[in-house]
Amino acid sequence: MILPIVAYGTPILRVVSKDITPDYPNLEQLIADMWETMYSSNGVGLAAPQVNRDIRLFVVDSQQIFINLEEDEKDKYPDGPGIKQVFINAHITALNGEEWAYNEGCLSIPKIREDIFRSEEVTIEYVDENFEPHVSTFNGISARIILHEYDHIEGKLFIDYLKPLKRKLLKSKLDDITRGKVNVDYKMSFPR
Questions:
Q1: N or C: which end of the chain has fewer CB within 10 A?
Q2: Known binding-site positions for Fe cation
Q3: Residues 140/152, Cβ–Cβ less than 8 Å
C-alpha cells in the first residue's frame, strides 16, 4: 500500500525516533509499504518518520542512482552498483573521509534541491528486517543516502546543513510546502 509522505512542517520530522523490537506491530507490512511508497514517488531512500512513524527504520536503494548514471559517471563513485537494504535501530559508529558535495532533495521537502556536504564513509550498526545484527561500512552514494535517511530518524533534515542566508532565501518555498501549496505526483500529508 502506498502511504502518504509527511510534508515539511509536520512535527514528527523533528522527533528523535525510538528503537523497536521484533514484535513491532505489522513490521513486515510496514517495510513492504515503505518500499512501495518510495518507488512510487521515485525516491532512493525513505525513513519511517516520513510515513508518520517515530521508529528507527529506513530503507535505501542506491542501485536506482547507478541504473540512471551514464557509463563514464559510474567510475566516480566507489560503491557501484549500489545497495538495496533495510536498516532498523541504526546507530552511526564512525564517519570517515573527506566531506563532499552532492545535490540532495527530499520527498518531504519537494521541489527544493541543494548541494549538501557529507562524509565519504559511514560505519553503522543496525539490524536487518530479520533482526540479524550488522556493523557495516558504506561509502559513496550509498553512504550519502544512508546519512540522509539516518538524519530523518534523528529529527534532522538536509536543509539544516544550509547556511542561514540560504535558509532565509528558501523560507517562502518552505512555508508553501507546510501550507500544502506544492504539486507533487505522489501522495502527501500536510501539517494541520
A1: C
A2: 106, 148, 152
A3: no
Grouping H, G, I as helix, E, B as strand and the rest as coil, residue 58 is: strand
DSSP state of 36: H
Q: Which three cell numbers stand for residue 48?
A: 519511517
Contacts of 29 (CB under 8 A, 6+ apart): none
pTM, to two decimals: 0.95
Of 7, 84, 103, give the one whose Cα is nearest residue 52: 7
Q: What does the pLDDT read at residue 101?
A: 95
Going from the N-terminus, what domains does the chain have, and what CATH number goes with each?
Answer: 5-181 (3.90.45.10)
Which grid coordinates belong to 103?
A: 545535490
Annotated binding site: 106, 148, 152
Distances (CA, A) of 101 to 4, 6, 144: 29, 26, 10
In angstroms, the CA 57 to CA 61 distance is 14
Spans of the chain, pLDDT less than 50 = none
Q: Which residues are catalytic?
A: 149
